[in-house]
Amino acid sequence: MRGAMQKRVFRRVRVLFCLAALAIPAAACAAETAVDGPNELARVLARTGPGDVIELAPGRYETRGLRASSSGTADAPIVLRARVPGQTVLATGGVTLLKITGAHWVIEGIDFEGGPDSHHALHIAGGADGTVVRGNRFRNFHAAIKGNGEGSPRRFPDAVRIERNVFLNDTPRATDAPVTPIDIVGGQDWLVAENVIADFAKDGGNRVSYAAFLKGGARNGAFLRNLVVCASLHGGGIRVGLSLGGGGTGGGVEDPRTPCNTGNCPEAVDMTVAGNIVLHCPGEPGLYLNEAEGALVAGNTFLGTAGIDARFPETSARIENNLIGGRIARRDGGRAEARGNLVAGGAAGLGATRVDAWFPGWREGDFTVSEVLPRPAGAPPMPVGSRDFCGHPYTDASPPGAIAGTGRCIVAEELIRRHGPFAPSLPIR
């Protein structure tokens, strides 16, 4: 009790000091607040400001309907983090755990846990520019991270970074609602990098789910060096890997900043998909391009998938230097220029004979190259300074795909390096 009173007194003094010294930069008035319960967390979120750090003590916090509407700045973001990464659980049985509408928040080190009817762990909306979601785990949500616009006129969050998180569902989601762990509608300059996304099945409605998509007029976004395992711990449903465009966007909710003069508006514009490994999407594309204009798809590995689908006339893509178990399909007028790809399988995405010779341990997550992969004639060079899934540099002799072939690449070791206490042990079937 006494400690809590002292903290309240300190905060009042700090606020009065800052009000009396408006010329002082916001970061100078920042506070670090220790939180050890859900009610206190809600109160602290309501009065935070630029540069503040909210640190959650280890434990389990049952909560729902939290709001983060205050804004930090690019130089002084508001940080919400676990004191010890991996030892703080924010759990909910509600629809949304935390909605972020303020700019420049950093969320890190937290274990987010949903229930059977939980849609979103984080809903990033409106003016939530510059949000960073880094080093967390998300379990048992329909769409753990939802990004979209709101208001009139609609405002969309830009420059959001989703990095080094783990997304898992223990069982297929029994719902008619969309099931996509990273579900982004609109916005510009979103980065989705070095995440693990696995077991995101939908057991209801159309039974179609995606690992992640950017759609709704989204622009200049990127999927980089993610690991997607569509079916690992459980099967069933129609599981698509990454997507630009998803299943399309209903009228009135798309980002109006994307130019559209034809009446058939692109879902995603000027996107990059590079360095990703996508595995075990039975009979479904590892990458689905739906009305994706100006997409670059380079240096990815798709195994145990149906390959890449480029669909509808609005889609125009450069598909370069990929290792594809499956095929490149151009459907319903979709356009794709393909160069330097190594297509190692038929429509079912098998081709196991060749893949097993190149990566004997790939089913166990060992992508160390044991046999030199052929480099297709006319393959374009990888960008100068670019690195593969395991951080090794590409060279002029590197084969197509997310593995440069210049060093040891064991997925389990890479996941421990990236995700620490949240690194999953995934059986790869």
TrEMBL record:
<feature type="signal peptide">
    <location>
        <begin position="1"/>
        <end position="30"/>
    </location>
</feature>
<dbReference type="InterPro" id="IPR012334">
    <property type="entry name" value="Pectin_lyas_fold"/>
</dbReference>
<protein>
    <recommendedName>
        <fullName>Right handed beta helix domain-containing protein</fullName>
    </recommendedName>
</protein>
<dbReference type="InterPro" id="IPR039513">
    <property type="entry name" value="PL-6"/>
</dbReference>
<dbReference type="InterPro" id="IPR011050">
    <property type="entry name" value="Pectin_lyase_fold/virulence"/>
</dbReference>
<dbReference type="Pfam" id="PF14592">
    <property type="entry name" value="Chondroitinas_B"/>
</dbReference>
<keyword id="KW-0732">Signal</keyword>
